[in-house]
Amino acid sequence: MEFEFPIYPFIWDYSDMYNLIEYESKILNSDTWNEDENILYLLEKFPNSQIIESKQIIKSKDSANNINIHTWYLYQKKVFESNNQNIKIITDSKFKFKANINCFIFDPNDIFDNSKIDEKNKKFSTICIIKNKKSIIPELIPSLYIHTHNIKGIFRFSPNDNNKINIKDNITNGIFYVQMDNLILRFILEIK
Length: 192
Known about the structure:
Strand content: 35-45%
Mean pLDDT: 86
Number of helices: 3
Distance between the termini: 29 Å
Structural class: mainly beta
Number of strands: 14
Low-confidence stretches: none
């Protein structure tokens, strides 16, 4: 079987990776983002980045567990058939991809709770979330490990422990920014 996923980062539920995703994205030009002070600041730090705006509707907070960055790399590597918006994932594919990617979320609106620590393993359970612009130092951007694999013959994106995000319980919508490689993503999230 084939499923279409956005080529850009999107929030997904590991327990149901092949669920329907209400998502739309578009490339922004300077006329569109010129008034967004956060994009302007990120562009100072990461010049020549492509600017994307994505909107996603999540029907349940329980489904907003992980931010997935894999499809961006599958798109770049031309592994599966794709166009400017979507990538076709073949569910019985044996393709394996592993990489360490410099990536972080900039959260100026305080929608994430990155205070949770896994006491058993003594490590943070969330992707790196930066809430203060002055803390964005390109040379110190953490590395995020990502990979794909198969479980019982079904192709899967695989979250690592540092891939998880925790959305605050009182949030119904918000804007945050994802930076990776030459991509800055303004992500608009709505939780119903």
